[in-house]
Amino acid sequence: MFPKEVPMIIYVAFDDTDTIDCGRGTGKLARWYGGELPDGCRLYALIRQQLLVADDIPYTSHNSSLVCMIEAPGREVIPELIRRGAAHIKKHFVVGSDPGLCVVAQDDPAIPALKEFGKLCLVRKVTQTEAHAAVGTAHLSGHGGTNDGVIGAAAGVGLTALGGSGRVNEWHEAGFTRTVPQETTAGFLREHRIEPLAIDKNAAWIPDTDLIDNRGWLRPNWLGGRAVLPVLAVAPNRWQTLPKKKGDES
Fold it and tell me: Is the Cα dihedral 19, 20, 21, 26 positive or negative?
C-alpha cells in the first residue's frame, strides 16, 4: 500500500471544526496541521472522506472529514501528534462547531473495526458510542459543542485505511496537488505516484506521453491505497479530468 521507504503511516483525522458562515472548512484546518508536525514527520497525503448526507444527520455543508496521513518514524510520536492535534483544534476551530480528533497508527488493532465503522457511516446514522467502541484503545476525543465530530473523525480513519474511498487533497508534500501545472503528461503523474485511469468503456492504459488537463484542480481519488486520477478522452492522446462540482471543497 505504501512505498517501502515510508517507515509508518499514522492517521490524524479532523471533523466538524467549522460553521456554515465562517468562510472556511475543515479542509484548511487539516492542511495547516501538515505544517505543524514534529521533527521526523511529514504529510504523506491529505484525504477527504465524504460521509452520508441525510436529513437526520447534522452537518455543516458536506458532511465530510479530513484525514492527514502522516509519515512517522514510529509509534513513539503518537502522543505528540495528539497533543499538537488538540492544540491545533483549540487554535483554529470555530465556536459553534463540534470538533473531533482521531489518531491511529496503520498497524493498530482497531483498524479492522474502524474500516467497518467507516462503511457503516455511508449507509446510516451512527452514534458517538459506536465511534468510541470502534476505536478501541486508540485516540478519539471531542473538543467542543456536542463532540459529534468524533463520529466523522473515526469514520475518516476507517475509510482511508480501507483504501477504496476518498479524494486526495494533498499528496506527498504539502502543496503538490495545488502547484502542479494544469497540463502534464501521464508519465509526469506516474513519476509522482498518481496513476491516470481512463474511465471510458475501453479502460485502456494511458501512454506516458499522452497529455492530461487537470482543469487547474488536481484531486485524485484514493483507490486501492493509491492516488488514482479518473480521466476522459477529449482528443487523440489528450485527456481531461472530471469537472469540479459547484460548491466542492478546495
Answer: positive
